[in-house]
Specification:
This protein has 150 residues and is an all-alpha fold. 52% of the residues lie in helices and 3% in strands. It contains seven helices and two strands; from the N terminus they run αββαααααα.
Length: 150
């Protein structure tokens, strides 16, 4: 079986969890072995730009609920009120929004009927206060929201 990214490999491992036992024909041999195209043997030695790979991809100490919230916000489309409610619930449950949370929220403001550029600018200010990275994508979404608003 070939998985094309880390997410697919993790999903596959979760599906076969506790079912990865040896068969009667091959005792002691695992039915599933996960191999990565680029193996990371030693995180302290194998670094990129001076940082361990684990820190770059945010695997260590990551909150597993945040990506689920982000996907949920992404499905809101033009219903920005629903997206705001999801972000509020996320905060009330103690989960910290990240760049992807704010990007999904900004898309909702941009796609709203009518678009909500003022709310997008307030979100940008909140990102600055919370020290969340502001990327060119975020800025382009805000500019697009202003253009759609006329």
């Amino acid at each position: 079986m070939t998985c094309y990214n880390y997410a697919e490999a993790e999903k596959c491992k979760n599906i076969v969890h506790n079912r990865n036992i040896s068969s009667d024909f091959n005792p002691g041999v695992a039915l599933l072995q996960v191999e990565y195209a680029e193996r990371i043997d030693n995180l302290k030695r194998d670094t990129y730009a001076g940082k361990p790979h684990q820190a770059i991809f945010g695997i260590k100490d990551a909150d597993p609920a945040v990506p689920r919230y982000n996907r949920l916000i992404g499905t809101c489309g033009a219903y920005w009120q629903d997206a705001e409610a999801i972000v509020d619930r996320m905060r009330s449950e103690g989960h910290k929004p990240n760049l992807y949370t704010y990007t999904a929220l900004l898309f909702c403001y941009r796609n709203g009927r009518p678009p909500q550029p003022h709310k997008a600018v307030l979100t940008l200010e909140r990102m600055r206060r919370e020290k969340v990275e502001i990327t060119t994508t975020v800025c382009n979404i805000i500019v697009d929201a202003w253009c759609r608003a006329g």
